[in-house]
């Protein structure tokens, strides 16, 4: 008889289940704070040691638990919030699956002290790796206090993969802020290594935002308020000056639960059209109040993704509400004729930003090819294609097969050039191209109409030329007449100095001026039309999230940021020769269809689709 299939011991099953709920110390913080809020707490006090690896303690003044409930709380699927499957669609609490405490207790040393208001004595329970060490009566204040020590002590592999303290505490702050924003009526405190990080007294929503993000936000918040039969939306959006390159201050809350929703984000972003640049992200803090029966939150272990029964309707309501709020506060787009495709009328000739950028573009491409001999030059033009006898610089034959399989929203960034098969059939030479709106290039092809985003095409061309040049040798440095000072926090300071050698290879020289200031003393000529402080500030944001990122990714990201800024200055009317040159250069790129960060460059309208519009 076969005995291959066996039942797992409870301790192992709990550890496996814990992997879905508890990924890092921040996961524990989230679950424990949510339990405090569900218990009706008006004061939540959080103490952290060593970014949660040594100690996580959450104390509240909620209703507490009886002796029996305290013991049952650590059993898997034990919950006070769900009695039947129908209850899943009427959820008004934060936690409800009954997995959090069992998962924490499976991978840590946990102590609970709790008492209800109608009990003279409280209960203390000590559990380590799912084993109950002690349960006893104690004197205790009303409420609950959880102390979680030595997270992942019994799973060394999981503990080894935790990031550095700066990174892990950054994730803890993120979870803390999400919950503190959703509950301004609750007093929150966060202490890390005996130092106060946040002390947030009871307040209204605006005061809570300002208390977390700083007083400068008080005058930069635009109130949003709308009430419909579907839902009520209230909160704040930031004025354009609050827009940032990183989307770190964007918060949706549904019935006081933090939510991620890319479709609703697009609704907010579309309301800012003409107000912020294309590479900036608006700040927003928005609350949705909706009937729980109209949403489904039971679709993700972390409960941050939510399904709505009328997504398109909410999209329209949200976009209109934000646009109306911005209009009421006189935040209106300025008219930019150059961006909208109007002709340029020049009285006398003065070199503008786009011409400076074009000079950089030409110099960069010229330098790349001048650094190699004739054979190397030929290799660069053809090495990425399967047919080495076709010169793709002179014409755009075979482009359609190159384009095939790229028309997808899911960009495969690991795509290798050898995968770009090109056939000798289904070919049509592109005879002409036109520019419209100064933003797009259109050209006819055998199977329809090809549209190219001009700015993104420039980004891809510049990026590959820059990376190719840097592979051959470090970029030259050019001393700045006036070094740029960059004051920064201690962690950012250390992170940036940690990639100093990578920056030097790109021609960027940084020096430590004092304990909290970095000097930028030299900058590469290729980046001359960009601001070094802007480039490095964006790099600092990335390093906050991923300080352990590989050095090669830093180089790629800096180049990606620089060319995005260079290309943003290139909008202008192009001659026929310039249009053809752009197309030629684009189709010699390794991956012409997407920018390095995955934005679409090329789109195609098939002949059938065009004809269907005239039926």
Return Rg in Å. 29 Å
Number of domains: 4
CATH homologous superfamily caption of the largest domain: Histidine kinase-like ATPase, C-terminal domain
Question: What's the CATH architecture name of the largest domain?
Answer: 2-Layer Sandwich
Low-confidence stretches: 81-91, 334-358, 366-430
| CATH class annotation of the largest domain | Alpha Beta
Main pleated sheet: 8 strands, mixed
Total number of beta strands: 22
What is the CA–CA distance across the termini? 69 Å
Shape: globular
* CATH fold annotation of the largest domain: Heat Shock Protein 90
Number of helices: 19
Overall pLDDT confidence = 77
Portion of residues in beta strands equals: 15-25%
Q: How are the strands ordered across the major sheet? A: 5-4-3-6-2-1-7-8
DSSP helix fraction: 25-40%
Tell me the structural class.
alpha+beta
Question: Mind sketching the topology for me?
Answer:
Elements: H1 10-21, H2 25-38, E1 43-49, E2 55-60, H3 67-72, H4 100-106, E3 109-115, E4 122-128, E5 131-138, E6 143-149, H5 156-160, H6 165-182, E7 187-192, E8 195-200, H7 205-213, E9 221-227, E10 232-238, E11 250-254, E12 257-259, H8 262-271, E13 284-289, E14 295-296, E15 307-308, H9 311-328, H10 353-370, H11 374-382, H12 399-403, E16 434-436, E17 440-445, E18 448-453, H13 454-472, E19 478-487, H14 490-498, H15 500-505, E20 509-514, E21 517-523, H16 532-545, H17 551-567, H18 576-586, E22 602-606, H19 607-612
Parallel strand pairs: 1-7, 11-13
Antiparallel strand pairs: 1-2, 2-6, 3-4, 3-6, 4-5, 7-8, 9-10, 10-13, 11-12, 14-15, 16-17, 17-18, 18-22, 19-21, 20-21
Helix pairs in contact: 1-4, 2-6, 6-7, 8-9, 10-13, 13-17, 13-18, 14-16, 16-17
């Amino acid at each position: 008889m076969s005995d291959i299939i066996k039942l797992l011991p409870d301790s192992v099953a709990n550890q496996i289940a814990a992997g879905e709920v508890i990924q890092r110390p921040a996961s524990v913080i989230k679950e424990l704070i949510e339990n405090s809020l569900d218990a009706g707490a008006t004061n939540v006090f959080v103490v952290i040691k060593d970014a949660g690896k040594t100690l996580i303690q959450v104390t509240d003044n909620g209703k507490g638990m009886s002796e029996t409930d305290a013991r049952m709380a650590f059993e898997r699927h034990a919950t006070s919030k769900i009695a039947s499957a129908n209850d899943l669609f009427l959820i008004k609490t934060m936690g409800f699956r009954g997995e959090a405490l069992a998962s924490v207790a499976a991978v840590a040393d946990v102590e609970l002290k709790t008492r209800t208001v109608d009990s003279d004595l409280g209960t203390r329970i000590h559990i380590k790796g799912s084993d109950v060490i002690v349960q006893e009566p104690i004197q205790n204040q009303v409420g609950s206090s959880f102390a979680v020590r030595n997270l992942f002590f019994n799973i060394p592999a999981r503990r080894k993969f935790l990031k550095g303290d700066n990174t892990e505490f950054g994730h803890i702050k993120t979870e803390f802020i999400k919950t503190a924003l959703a509950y301004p009526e609750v007093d929150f405190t966060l202490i890390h290594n005996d130092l106060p990080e946040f002390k947030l007294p009871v307040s209204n929503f605006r005061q809570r935002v300002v208390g977390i993000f700083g007083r400068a936000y008080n005058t930069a918040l635009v109130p949003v308020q709308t009430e419909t039969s579907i839902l009520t939306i209230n909160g704040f959006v930031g004025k354009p000056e609050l827009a940032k390159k990183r989307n770190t201050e964007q918060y949706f809350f549904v019935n006081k639960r933090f939510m991620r929703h890319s479709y609703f984000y697009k609704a907010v972003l579309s309301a800012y059209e003409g107000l912020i640049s294309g590479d900036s992200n608006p700040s927003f803090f928005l609350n949705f109040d909706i009937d729980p029966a109209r949403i489904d939150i039971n679709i993700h272990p972390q409960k941050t993704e939510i399904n709505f029964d009328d997504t398109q309707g909410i999209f329209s309501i949200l976009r209109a509400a934000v646009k109306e709020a911005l209009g009421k506060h006189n935040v209106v787009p300025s008219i930019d004729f150059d961006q909208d495709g109007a002709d340029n009328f020049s009285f006398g000739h003065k070199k503008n930003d786009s011409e400076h950028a074009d000079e950089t573009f030409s110099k960069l491409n010229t330098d790349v090819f001048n650094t190699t001999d004739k054979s190397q030059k030929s290799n660069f033009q053809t090495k990425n294609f399967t047919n080495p006898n076709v010169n793709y610089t002179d014409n755009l034959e075979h482009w359609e097969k190159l384009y095939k399989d790229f028309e997808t929203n899911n960009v495969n960034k690991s795509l290798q050039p050898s995968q770009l098969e090109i056939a000798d059939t289904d070919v049509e030479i592109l005879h002409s191209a036109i520019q419209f709106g100064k933003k797009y290039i259109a050209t006819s092809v055998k199977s329809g109409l090809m549209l190219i985003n001009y700015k993104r095409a420039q980004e891809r061309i510049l990026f590959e030329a820059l990376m190719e040049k840097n592979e051959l040798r470090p970029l030259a440095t050019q001393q700045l007449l006036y070094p740029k000072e960059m004051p920064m926090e201690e962690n950012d300071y250390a992170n940036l100095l940690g990639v100093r050698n990578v920056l030097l290879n790109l021609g960027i020289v940084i020096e430590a001026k004092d304990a909290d200031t970095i000097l930028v003393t030299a900058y590469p000529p290729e980046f001359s039309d960009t601001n070094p402080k802007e480039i490095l500030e964006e790099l600092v944001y990335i390093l906050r999230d991923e300080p352990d990122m590989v050095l090669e990714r830093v180089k790629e990201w800096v180049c990606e940021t620089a060319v995005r800024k260079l290309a943003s200055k290139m909008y202008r009317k192009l001659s026929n020769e310039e249009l053809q040159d752009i197309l030629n250069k684009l189709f010699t790129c390794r991956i012409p269809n997407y920018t390095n960060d995955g934005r679409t460059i090329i789109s195609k309208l098939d002949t059938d689709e065009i004809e269907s519009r005239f039926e």
